[in-house]
């Protein structure tokens, strides 16, 4: 039994990483294999693998540039003293902003002198006299400024409503917000606000009995462009783009399940519904049932956008059908 955990991960290496999609697919789904080496890590089907990602280098570089920070400055991270670049790359969630940061803008913008208040008390034009009678009262033909015209008002409108903050953060990261409001933070201020980098959990797509010494995943790589900047899933892009097969150390640990398990009675029939990358744990279930020679019948539902390009593990599935290990296979293609 091993003691590896999120706080004490095992440094594994990816031994295989290849695209499962067929030519012409608009998706990128990968089969990724981690070596467990001498870790002593074990797992059962239904468990998840925890992976510790790192932030994309280009986002860290943009953050350093927009704030004018010294990448080699020594800072105190929650993981100890280190240079600023390493802290931003490995210790904090910098690929997406949080509510605390947006709320901190109120004080930053006011203290930067960006908030301007004006109260019109009298207006005279074209022989017309007008006097204010109430707060917010405006003369004919003069419209009040929208919150977006004034940075402080815009921030106030955002932070006043929890839903507004969520909507705002959905399409922005720290770099976007810093550029939008032209605000500056010290590295210490920023690290105090940023969330700690968290591991990502992935359903295991293999049986340890079928693949001793290895653990396998089925991962959909998330990529998109917003505000003219490339973005994507933190951990999926890290595994696909940064990790070099058989070279890069990647921190991993097991996350056991107590309920998502095969029935104890191997005679029990099972129905599995796993569209898209949701097939991952059921590939593991099938491998285990085949290894154990379980007599219970197995019915698998699977589907995705296209049979031509998203029929993951086609050869394995057809092999299970031919051998009778897969009693029934139902598909739905959109």
Your description of this structure?
The chain has 334 residues and is an alpha+beta fold. Among the domains are: 54-197, Up-down Bundle (NADPH-cytochrome p450 Reductase, Chain A, domain 3); 270-333, Rossmann fold (3-Layer(aba) Sandwich). Helix content is 29%, strand content 24%. It has a 6-stranded antiparallel β-sheet, with helices on one face. Helix 1 (57-67) runs parallel beside helix 6 (174-181) and helix 3 packs antiparallel against helix 4 (151-159). The longest helix has 13 residues, at 99-111. The chain starts with 9 loop residues before the first strand and ends with a strand.
**Helix count, per DSSP?**
10
Helical proportion?
A: 25-40%
What strand order characterises the main sheet? 8-3-12-1-2-9
- CATH homologous superfamily identity of one domain: NADPH-cytochrome p450 Reductase, Chain A, domain 3
Based on CA atoms alone, the radius of gyration comes out at 27 Å
Number of strands: 15
Largest sheet: 6 strands, antiparallel
Mean pLDDT: 90
Contiguous low-pLDDT stretches (5 residues minimum) are 115-128, 143-147
Shape-level CATH architecture of one domain: Up-down Bundle
The amount of beta strand, in percent, is: 15-25%
Oligomer: single chain
Give the helix/strand class. Answer: alpha+beta
Please name the CATH topology of one domain.
NADPH-cytochrome p450 Reductase, Chain A, domain 3
């Amino acid at each position: 039994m091993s003691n590896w955990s999120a706080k004490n991960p095992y440094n594994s290496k990816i031994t295989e990483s290849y695209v499962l999609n067929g030519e012409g697919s608009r998706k990128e789904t990968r089969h990724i294999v981690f070596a467990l080496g001498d870790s002593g890590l074990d797992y059962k089907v239904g468990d998840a693998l925890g992976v510790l990602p790192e932030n994309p280098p280009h986002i860290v570089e943009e953050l350093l540039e927009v704030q004018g920070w010294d990448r080699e400055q020594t800072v105190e991270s929650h993981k100890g003293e280190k240079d600023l670049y390493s802290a931003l790359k490995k210790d904090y969630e910098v690929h997406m902003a949080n509510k605390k940061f947006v709320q901190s803008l109120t004080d930053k913008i006011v203290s930067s002198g960006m908030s301007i208040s004006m109260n019109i008390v009298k207006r005279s034009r074209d022989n017309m006299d007008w006097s204010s009678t109430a707060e917010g009262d405006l003369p004919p033909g003069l419209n009040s400024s929208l919150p977006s015209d004034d940075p402080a008002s815009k921030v106030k409108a955002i932070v006043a409503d929890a839903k507004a903050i969520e909507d705002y953060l959905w399409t922005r990261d720290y770099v976007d917000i810093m550029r939008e409001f032209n605000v500056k933070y010290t590295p210490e201020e920023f690290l105090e606000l940023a969330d700690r980098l968290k591991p990502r959990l992935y359903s295991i797509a293999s049986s340890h009995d079928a693949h001793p010494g290895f653990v396998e995943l089925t991962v959909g790589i998330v990529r998109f462009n917003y505000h003219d900047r490339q973005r994507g899933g933190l951990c999926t892009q890290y595994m696909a783009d940064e990790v070099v097969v058989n070279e890069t150390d990647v921190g991993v640990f097991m996350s056991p399940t107590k309920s998502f398990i095969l029935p104890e009675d191997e005679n029990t029939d099972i129905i599995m519904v796993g569209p898209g990358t949701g097939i991952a744990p059921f590939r593991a279930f099938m491998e285990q049932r085949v290894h154990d020679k379980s007599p219970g019948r197995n019915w698998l539902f699977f589907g995705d956008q296209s049979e031509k390009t998203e029929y993951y593990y086609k050869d394995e599935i057809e092999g299970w059908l031919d051998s009778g290990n897969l009693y029934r296979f139902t598909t739905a293609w959109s």
